[in-house]
């Protein structure tokens, strides 16, 4: 299976373990490449210079043994100039772009999401969904991301169809419209196994209908854990790869430094024994 992860949080943002601990676990688990992707968004953002210094030290420490990449998870609504020198960017939509007294994040708690829907959209879930995907469609234009993070995060607390039917045309159409636009921009998507590995979701992001559609559109994927602790670093990666294969994918992308030190993307097979 794929021995790499490019969505990794640490104590420098909202993770539980230090970069050093995450790197050690990745190495012990046999990863060939590890991409750090600290948050830069309106709620969680790092001391960028301190982050760069620490990740560069780890790059030196593991050089020749494991390829470490200095990335960022940049929110669609955050300042793209906040992360100079990032070697890759995850473009992630965590908020909806509305004027509201309440929190506008879709992924904090079910209660906060319900409040957002009620106060900013009059309780109309499909209006919230449409606003989310309208913003999601702009993530590459705004962040110039290397890949799109957790495309359908708006469904995080919707397990079992608690708020809306994720298989309905009303839900899928705005999502597919955003997806089509992003695929047209040539940007890959991650298969994000984080919520699935933590038992919040039964599927990765994007869910089956959307990931299958991505394959039909000719889109490409990376498989990531979105780990916030060392024990979750490799959790779900194999399941995510199998899920992607069941949606039609035979390969995924991995990032790495080439001989000149430039970050490049290459395609690897999803099957057993792939690296
Ligand atoms: Zn995120
Ligand atoms: Zn993340």
TrEMBL record:
What GO terms in the biological process aspect are recorded for it? L-histidine biosynthetic process
Single annotated GO MF: histidinol-phosphatase activity
Give the EC number(s) under which this enzyme is classified.
3.1.3.15
Annotated ranges, domain PHP: 6-191
**Listed pathway(s):** Amino-acid biosynthesis; L-histidine biosynthesis; L-histidine from 5-phospho-alpha-D-ribose 1-diphosphate: step 8/9
Identify the keywords attached in UniProt to this record, alphabetized.
Answer: Amino-acid biosynthesis, Histidine biosynthesis, Hydrolase
Which reaction(s) are listed as its catalytic activity?
Answer: L-histidinol phosphate + H2O = L-histidinol + phosphate
Instruction: Give the record's GO CC terms.
Output: cytoplasm
Q: Which family does it belong to?
A: Belongs to the PHP hydrolase family. HisK subfamily.
Q: What is this protein called?
A: Histidinol-phosphatase
């Amino acid at each position: 299976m794929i021995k790499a992860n490019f969505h990794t949080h640490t104590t420098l943002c909202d993770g539980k373990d230090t970069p050093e601990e995450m790197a050690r676990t990745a190495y012990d688990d046999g990863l060939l490449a590890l991409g750090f992707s600290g948050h830069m968004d309106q709620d969680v953002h790092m001391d960028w210079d301190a982050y760069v210094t620490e990740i560069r030290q780890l790059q030196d420490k593991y050089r020749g043994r494991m390829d470490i990449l200095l990335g960022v998870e940049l929110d669609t609504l955050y300042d793209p100039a906040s992360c100079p020198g990032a070697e890759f960017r995850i473009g992630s939509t965590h908020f909806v772009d509305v004027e509201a007294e309440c929190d506008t994040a879709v992924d904090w708690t079910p209660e906060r999401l319900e409040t957002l829907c009620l106060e900013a959209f009059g309780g109309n879930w499909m209006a919230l969904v449409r606003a989310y995907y309208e913003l999601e469609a702009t993530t590459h234009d705004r962040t110039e991301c290397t890949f799109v993070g957790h495309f359908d995060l708006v469904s995080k607390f919707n397990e079992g169809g608690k708020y809306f039917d994720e298989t309905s045309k009303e839900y899928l159409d705005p999502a597919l419209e955003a997806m089509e636009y992003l695929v047209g921009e040539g940007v890959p998507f991650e298969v994000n196994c984080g919520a699935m590995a933590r038992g919040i979701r039964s599927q990765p992001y994007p869910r089956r209908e959307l990931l299958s559609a991505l394959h039909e559109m000719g889109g490409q994927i990376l498989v990531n854990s979105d780990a916030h602790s060392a024990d979750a670093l490799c959790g779900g990666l194999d399941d995510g790869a199998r899920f992607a294969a069941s949606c039609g994918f035979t390969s995924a992308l991995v990032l790495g430094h080439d001989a000149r030190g430039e970050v490049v993307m290459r395609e690897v097979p999803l099957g057993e024994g792939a690296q």
